[in-house]
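Quick start: read one record
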Amino acid sequence: MNFDTQVMIDTIWVVIRAVPRAFGIAAVVLVIGTLLGAVFAQLKMKPVPVITPLVRLFVSYMRGVPLIVHLFVMMYSLPQASSSLLAIFGVTVQHMIFRV
């Protein structure tokens, strides 16, 4: 196995071109997470009879379940569930190209 510098140079440019998109996604997630956190905090501080217990249940669930479980659920269950739901409305979805 030989080290090919041309492959490394080609690959680094692909990675560098993807950096702005990754930062954009991170910024969007940061803003959405901050807004949701602020809304949930307000709902916990000023109780609303029906919504406050649901918020407490959600926060307890998110704190209690490890992050890796959420990642596995999103990776394996969510695509199948969303394609099944969209099929009801007549929309077909191509499954992930990269399978693990």
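Residues 71 and 78 are 10 Å apart (CA to CA).
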